[in-house]
Amino acid sequence: MRKLEDIKEKFVEIYGGIYEHSPWVAEASFDGGVGDLSLKMRQVVEDAGLDAQLKLLRAHPDLAGKLATSGALTAESTSEQAGAGLDDCSEAEFAEFTALNERYKAKFGFPYILAVKGRHRVEILENFRSRIDNSPEQEFREALDQVHQIAKLRLKDMHN
């Protein structure tokens, strides 16, 4: 029995960062079997309930926010944001990201989340502007879908 616990511990160590600051998703996804890990993890989140989902959304950093400029992001988030050029924002772009981040969090209670891999900061700003007027229900669903997309991309990167 201890061997299975050791395997689970190693599994969580490896996959615990797939969902931002939420190793509980990997822990709950472990069943000792094989299968589509992305789907298992997604289902864990979908079944977790609103409180756990909201906590998961709130674990994400602001895009081009203070954590990014201070170097306090996870390695995954740093790489994703840099790949989208968010570390090269002009003063005007940074100011707009900051204002949108504050407005978004005040309206929805969690940060704006977008799977930024393969996107450019101009596209990200356009998406941000378009989503700020969504209803809370629309945006909660969209944010969760984006979190799942981020996780899927991270898993893919781990296995390439």
What is the secondary structure topology, with strand pairs?
Blueprint: H1 2-15, H2 23-29, H3 37-47, H4 50-58, H5 66-70, H6 75-83, H7 91-108, H8 121-131, H9 136-158
List keywords for this structure.
UraD-like; 9 helices; mainly alpha; globular; 160 residues
Outline the structure in words:
The protein is an all-alpha fold. Helix content is 67%, strand content 0%. It has helices at 2-15, 23-29, 37-47, 50-58, 66-70, 75-83, 91-108, 121-131, 136-158. It is globular and about 55 Å long.
In short:
This protein has 160 residues and is an all-alpha fold.
Specify Rg, calculated over alpha carbons.
16 Å
Top CATH class? Mainly Alpha
Which topology does CATH recognise? UraD-like
| Helix fraction bin | 55-70%
Task: Report the β-strand fraction as a percent range.
Answer: under 5%
Inertia-based shape: globular
Distance between the termini: 31 Å
Structural class by secondary-structure content: mainly alpha
Mean pLDDT: 87
Q: Helix-strand pattern, N to C? A: HHHHHHHHH
Q: Find the CATH superfamily.
A: Oxo-4-hydroxy-4-carboxy-5-ureidoimidazoline decarboxylase
* Low-confidence residue ranges: none
Domain count: the total is: 1
Write the CATH architecture name.
Orthogonal Bundle
- Count of runs of 4 or more consecutive helical residues: 9
- Tally of DSSP β-strands: 0
Main β-sheet description: none
Oligomer: single chain
